[in-house]
Every structure is written in C-alpha cells, then in structure tokens.
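Handout, page 2. Input:
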Amino acid sequence: MSKKALIVWGGWDGHEPEQIADLFKKILEKENFEVEVSNTLDAYADGEKLKTLDLIVPHWTMGKIENKYVRNVSEAVISGVGLAGCHGGMCDSFRNDVDWQFMTGGNWVAHPGNDGVEYMVNIKHSSSPLLEGMSDFKVVSEQYYLHVDPAVEVLATTRFPVVEGPHSANKSVDMPVVWTKRWGEGRVFYNSLGHHADIIAKHEVTEIMRRGFLWAAEGKRLVDESLRKVAFYSGMGDSQ
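Output:
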C-alpha cells in the first residue's frame, strides 16, 4: 500500500514555493507516495485527517498561522506522522510561533552575504546512516545561520564565517545544515538548503531530500506495527 504525503506551500514568493512543491511532489511520487498538494494553511484544519498521513511536508515562508493548525500538525507528528522540509519553508515559517520552532528544531536568524555565497556542505559522520555514502559538496546560495535545538542529531554542517560581518568577531563555528529530531513518536527532518528551486534540483540536494522524506515517513509504519503487536498480544491474553 502506498504511503500518503501532504505538501503545503505558500508564504513569501521569493522562495519559489510552488516550484519547489512541484519538485517535492515528483520526488515522492517516484517513491510511490500518494501526494496531496495544497497552497492554503487550511490544509492543517482537519487534525484527524493529518493523523492518517505518513508524511507532512511544509513549505511556507514567514506569515502567520492559527494556533489550532500548529496544534493539529504537532499532534499528528506526535502520533507518528513524519515531518520533513527545507530552508525557509520549514524553519523560517511563522516567526512568532515558538511551538512551531520547538517542533521543527530550529529557526533562521541570518544569511550573511545573502544569495550567491559559495560555501561547503560537510557531511557529518554520526550514529545515523541517513546520509551514508554521500560526499561533501559546494553550493552557491544563501548560507543559513540558525538558532538550533541542542536535541537535534546533526547530519551535515557548514563553516561560518564565509562572509564577514558582526558574527565574525566570534570563533569559527560549524552550523547545522541537515538534522533530524524526534517529536513524540514522529520523525522530523530538516535541510537548510533550498533558497530557489534550482538548488533543490541539484543532485546532492535532491538526494538529501529524498532520503529525508523516506526516513521521516517510515516512522508512521513503525508506530503502526508496534500498535498491532500490542493489540495482538493483548488479544492473546484476553483469550486465555
């Protein structure tokens, strides 16, 4: 049976949300997902429907969101639904909503040098095999400086500073680019790359997102299997 994914795009047009949502849809469909795409936050209105999904892919930069919509997404992820996204579409969404930031694991604060900065993405060898076999690579784009939850597992980093600024007075730092975290039973995946659609279309970035989508969505299956086992053994006990 195919997995179900919901992509919700919108917000600031500069991040090419519609184009990136289309790329995400193609990635997921190649992996046999049944994909629903929406350009309204009302897609988060039905909390029970969200819990039937395997994966939620938010791509909405800035803007405001109703508290109940954040609660619905959060409760779906807590139940085991995966959450996966990129760049400002997931971690520069709803700047006034700390609940969203807590769930996603970080929030954008700056991109020194703006667009067009050449920098290295360093794949980090960690306990997660998610990016296993991938090599470091360069991109020319925005280099995201984020405030990051210390609970995340960092899978890739980039070195600051590349462009001089007030942050340069500090020592060099390795800023997370790709991370995972848990939210209840759910799996959360984030990749800070993706300012424009051409960055998502870059081979390495497409592969990172593909793996992230699959990893996040797998959490729902594991939860469902666990619940079936509990029900099975409970039933055996009742029959004795």
